[in-house]
Specification:
single chain; alpha+beta; tt1808, chain A; six-stranded mixed β-sheet; three-stranded mixed β-sheet; 5 helices; 34% strand; Uma2; Restrct_endonuc-II-like
Length: 190
Amino acid sequence: MKRSLVKNKAFEEQSSDRHEHYGSRIMALTGGNQAHSIICSNLNALLHTQLRKRPSVIYTSDMKIRADQPRKYMYPDVAVVCGESQFEDATRRVLLNPAVIIEVLPESTEQYDRGKKFQYYRSIETVQEYILVASDAQHIDHYRRQSENLRVLTSMDGDDGVLELPTIERRLHLAEVYEKVPFDIEDNTA
């Protein structure tokens, strides 16, 4: 492991804040707004209910994910593993094999989540689905792996939309994902 990676890993483990690489900078992750928090809670509750008796594990934004090309560490809002979870080391702080990754998009990091971060997630062989959930409107973009270099995009809007998740053989109704989310409040987190 490169010396800078060892230093960054030690820094992150000792820090009370969480950090991600953003380009060549390391940035502290800030808390989300009300909509972001409610959507993340809804997603975790819905997935937990649907996957309780299946051999899948749901991780919240506390679980760090490692991408190898280039080696980067990120904290997705939701990650799902099918089968047994694999970790970087015995501390079980860095997950290596997510199958589904969900990011709830604040305006401040949307470009990064759609661009570089998506590129990093694509380098993880186990990732089959990448889902971007808007926090300012009922809109979801769903990328599904078709082959090594091809991802198929499906977008959906509104209360009647249904997100099909073939990797985990489940579906999410947008009305439930966005339940209790107030869209009339201005987002000043940027």
